[in-house]
Amino acid sequence: MNSIRKNVVLLLLFLLCSCNHSDKKNPSELNSDVLSRYKPKNYVEVKHPEWSKNATIYEVNVRQFTPEGTFKAFETHLPRLKAMGVDIIWLMPINPIGIEKRKGTLGSYYSVKDYYGVNPEFGTKEDLKALVKKIHTMGMHVIVDWVANHSSWDNVLAKEHPDWYSKTPEGNFQPTPWYDWEDIIDFDYDKPELRKYMTDALKYWVKEANIDGYRCDVAGFIPVDFWENARAEMDEIKPVFMLGEWESRDLHRKAFDMTYSWSLWDKMHSVTKDGKSLAGLVEYMAHDVSTFPKDAYRMTFTENHDKNSWEGNQYSNFGDGLEASMVLACTINGMPLIYSGQEAGLNRSLKFFDKDLIEWKNHPYAAIYTKLFDLKHKNQALWNGSYGGEMIRVFNDKPEQVISFSRTKNGDQVIPIINYSNKPVTVKLNSKYQKGTYNELFSNTIHVFIGDDIITLAPWKYLILVKQK
């Protein structure tokens, strides 16, 4: 009897081992249906317009651009902007400005009185449509600044639909909580009726004026699902381009093509003006490569209307490191922005609520941007999102002073080497994987890399090396 039990146990053990062995398949033998759930998926589901893949962007402060401050007067600058390499014209808000609680004599563009109207300060609806048509004729595109988070106190919606606004505990209208924006009142996006109204207004200008998309003010204050639906409805009319004033991954999935790289500005400013080390900037680049969605566009800049209006100007914010910061912002992963007057050496903060004409003059910065934008158009390594090349760190023996990296795509390669410090430097690059012949973008000199190459740079100077094919 014991021998029978023993044989039964051995048989069961044999069968159990056989089953376990049969389940342990070689990974290469696994059924494709099993593996499908483990395949990587792109986070970004937005389909970028084809024309945005190597685009640059320019922010237009219509009020301050010309003595007239109109759409028609601005048209005369379009040939110059086109020649500089600008692809996207971003018009600051074009809607009528509220009068109640207005700041200054002309008020804030971001206090909207009528979402279906045009600010008479700039011209008429027909003038706007003519400007858009002119921009398109010249091979550029145009987006309009949109303020969906709040309206002016005297917007008709405040009287017709007061329930569409957030309220204080006492039941009164309020500016966006915790902010001192006294000239506006805050919307409540828990209301489906408000969502439909705002979506219809967004669609109206795409249809009526044939604009190509929007820059959306404080986009992160508004629920992401609103933007995702609005984007889908606009895309049914035409492929649009959406820029969100925010810096967050979630906005990129189904709503926005591009968000702000506020953190890059902060890291550059901390080095150039606060004397901090390059560690923060290196960390930014590391996080850009490893944590930000590959096909999410990032807008890079040294100036925009917020920075210029409230935090100084390009010179006060970057000092002697301004030019190096401009070059870095145009070669790092992202779409470079120019703000009105930057290329003319704008050296002051423009007034935000009153007239303050930009002084237009020839300036070396225009030539720098022209060179960099031309390279971006032609060299796929610098294209936007997944169209461009990943930033690969080129290690060097002076990491406390020098930022050096390489970007490669489809045979194109660019290596920026920037002395991001106020001291001269002779640096050895670990360039054994970058061997080859390069043209320097600005001097057109030839550089041959053989590995462990040595470069000498003056304070805040740089080389942009473009590989010969």
TrEMBL record:
Instruction: Determine if Lyase is one of this entry's keywords.
Output: yes
The Glycosyl hydrolase family 13 catalytic domain is annotated at: 59-376
- Tell me the domain of life: Bacteria
Q: Which InterPro entries match?
A: GH, GH13_cat_dom, Glyco_hydro_b, Malt_amylase-like_C
- Signal peptide bounds: 1-22
In the record, biological process GO terms are: carbohydrate metabolic process
Q: Name one GO molecular function term.
A: lyase activity
Which keywords describe this protein according to UniProt?
Lyase, Signal
Q: Per its record, how is this protein called by name?
A: Alpha-amlyase
Recite the lineage of the species: Bacteria, Pseudomonadati, Bacteroidota, Flavobacteriia, Flavobacteriales
